[in-house]
Amino acid sequence: MKIEELKTPCYVIDEGRLTDNLKILNGVRERTGCSILLAQKAFSCFAEYPLIAKYIDGTTASGLYEARLGKEEMGLSNHVFAPAYKEADFEELTNICDHIVFNSFSQLKKYKDCLKGVNAGIRVNPQCSTQDGHAIYDPCAPGSRLGVTREQFEEEYLPYISGIHFHTLCEQNADALKITLDAVEEQFGEYFSRLSWINMGGGHHITRADYDLELLESCIKRIQDRYGLRVYLEPGEAVALNAGYLVTEVLDVVDNGIKTLILDASAACHMPDVLEMPYRPPLKDSADPGEKSFTYRLSSCTCLAGDVIGDYSFDHEIKPGDKLYFMDMAIYSMVKNNTFNGMPLPSIAIMDQDGECRIIKEFGYEDFKNRLS
Fold it and tell me: For the Orn/DAP/Arg decarboxylase 2 C-terminal domain, which residue ranges apply (predicted)?
């Protein structure tokens, strides 16, 4: 079926755009020899893992369940980082992961004798913030719980680790990586000769049209040539950037001073980052409010007064029954959605390169009920 025939709400993964992103990432791998991992926290649609596995080196996880998913569905290099590990989970993690990154030396000390040959690393905090306006995503903010600062670094435990990890970026270009890498090298470079790898984390918008691939690759090669370290990158958004849609239907139009479209999709339930960051998601065939002839506020059928997606304008009047298409909805949507108010979870469909869609997952009442007791 075509995208306009799908029952709403529905996430649609665009395999053509996904493949384009993967080819860009693979080009970085081929030109530099670095390893690239899918950060599953942004995109965990494992139906696409066989495709993704053709272009990158594996997965990275934020805990046991993601690590299991990466092992079971991709089966390549499997990395995990968490601010702390539960004892009940750790043995299984050592069985399914080849790299485990610790957030503190106290965690390393606790588990160093249980690693069973797994590569261990420590996350560092270079205290070098390059964020602009998104403090919630800034691991270098004052008081951050993420990573070991230079002052806290316990050199005597270097024999127990083979690499370091830093992750400080969010939707940023390579200039922010260079600034951060300079800080990491200045503060922790004296230890690099005793290590075998460095993980530069995620937040690299590598597949964005204006991304500086040349600068990224020079940063990678600099570390490889100077220290002989294997370099890992773990983008999440870059893998599926602009490779998904959320299709929704207009249920009603209300006007209490602002013309508002009531949709069967929800910011709070189906695209939480709209409220969390916040941001205004791109919408097909729309413009900023007032730019086109008809302006509307887009909202949902939940009872949350603030469940507002944003204000948009259109060339024509919007009526109940019309379908709207939010773009860039593959990332941080399916992994974050919820059933607040008993809202149904959107189905998941895949659109091939010929524009044909197939539904790969549908959700119902039992999915809502089984999360409760």
Answer: 11-329
Q: Are residues 60 and 234 in contact, defined by beta-carbon separation less than 8 angstroms?
A: yes
User: Could you state, in chain order, the average pLDDT of each consecutive group of 10 residues for the chain (373 residues)?
Assistant: 97 98 98 98 98 98 98 98 98 98 98 97 97 83 96 98 97 97 98 98 98 98 98 98 98 97 98 92 97 98 97 98 98 97 98 97 98 95
Quick one: tokens of 13?
């993964």
Around 180, how many Cα atoms within 13 Å sit in the side-chain half-sphere? 30
Helix (H, G, I), strand (E, B) or coil at 133: coil
Token reading at 232: 């890992």
Domains identified in the chain and CATH numbers: 3-12+244-329+337-369 (2.40.37.10), 33-240 (3.20.20.10)
127 vs 122: CA distance, rounded Å: 15
**Rounded to an integer, what distance in angstroms lies between the CA atom of residue 332 and that of residue 7?**
21
Amino acid 358 reads: R
Report whether the peptide linkage leading into residue 282 is cis, meaning its omega lies within 30 degrees of zero.
Answer: no
Please state, in angstroms and rounded to a whole number, the distance separating the CA atoms of residues 174 and 236. 15
CA distances in angstroms from 275 to 122, 271, 309, listed in the order given: 32, 8, 8
Q: pTM for the whole thing?
A: 0.96
Task: Name 27's Cβ contacts closer than 8 Å, sequence gap at least 6.
Answer: 213
Contact 57, 77 (CB under 8 A): yes
Please write down the long-range contacts of 285-291, taking CB distance under 8 Å and 24 or more positions apart: 285/314, 285/315, 285/325, 286/312, 286/313, 286/314, 286/324, 287/312, 287/313, 287/314, 288/312, 288/313, 289/313
